[in-house]
Amino acid sequence: MSSPAIPQTHSAHADPDHIRDRLPFLRRRGLMTRGIRAFLEARGHIEVETPYAVPAPGEEVHLHPFHTVRETPQGEQENLFLHTSPEFAMKRIVAATGLPVFQFARVWRNGEQSALHAPEFTMLEWYHPGIGLDGLMDEAEALIRAVLPPRLEHIGPGLDQTLDIQFPFERLTMEEAFRHHAGVDLLPTEGDAAALAQAADCTLRAGENWEDLFFRLLLERVEPAIGRTRPTFLTHWPASQAALARRDPTDPRVALRFELYAAGVELANAFEELTDAEEQRRRFQADRTARKALYPTRPDWPMDESLLDALPHMPPCSGIALGFDRLVMLSCGARRIQDVLWLSR
Description:
Elements: H1 16-21, H2 23-42, E1 46-47, E2 53-54, E3 66-71, E4 77-82, H3 87-97, E5 101-108, E6 120-129, H4 133-147, E7 151-156, E8 159-164, E9 170-173, H5 174-182, H6 193-200, H7 210-222, E10 232-238, E11 247-248, E12 251-262, E13 265-272, H8 277-294, H9 305-310, E14 317-323, H10 324-332
Parallel strand pairs: 1-5, 9-10
Antiparallel strand pairs: 2-4, 3-4, 5-6, 6-14, 7-8, 10-12, 11-12, 12-13, 13-14
Helix pairs in contact: 2-10, 5-7, 6-7
GO biological process, one term: lysyl-tRNA aminoacylation
GO molecular function: ATP binding; lysine-tRNA ligase activity; tRNA binding
Protein name: Lysyl-tRNA synthetase
């Protein structure tokens, strides 16, 4: 579907005609919300709500949270942040109950603004105890089929073709993706930027480390080649990109993580969840050290000890964060995330 013409001469958040122009997209948004809720509840998931203003907003190095201050009736002050994801809180609920849960959560990421990014947006997250990465891919694929048309006409950068939802989604390991689309044997180079640059036949930029070059090649060579005619799960990321994921017990060089791509857009990020609190603490500390080195003037926060206390009680579980606004964009052919928001800044 193509996007209806949207006036550019009025403020998107003040002009009532602008909202009326976008009503087809916004009605679709409501239908998809109800469809997803029905799908997950039919599979036994319970909808939850977690606090948005929290003491620890997350540990991802490059995400910048909004900062606020809570004042108590006694006049005391507490630093709080608008969370960048409800992940930590939802894991605590899974640890306490052992139940599958989901949430349509408003999340905030400072400094983000583009056709695909907004500083405030909706994240659909769900956690399913008892299933691994393959089972979560099956569930995510079934959910997307349940709420999207079987075929979508989409237009991306230099691209005009059909995205088929009814066919099995592609499942491609990161190692396979780099070999096929970047001509690189990726895993033997991990941690060695010069080796990766040589394997990729490219010049290492000043100050560029292995992780920087890995993401440059992912962006420039791999992502443009996947998820074009059918959605693609990009799985088994290098261990250094494990974040909150378990390492693969059959190959510790990789983490049990996938991202989902469709029509040139990253839709979701998922993990087979790490439940080892000591390992998680080490990873958090490494992320905190890197964040302080890169962004020394940004505010800091305490480590989330409540999450670390809960992890040993969490059953084997997989979880996924899906950009709901992007899924709506894909469904109705919208070109900008602002087109599927009732009001935007």
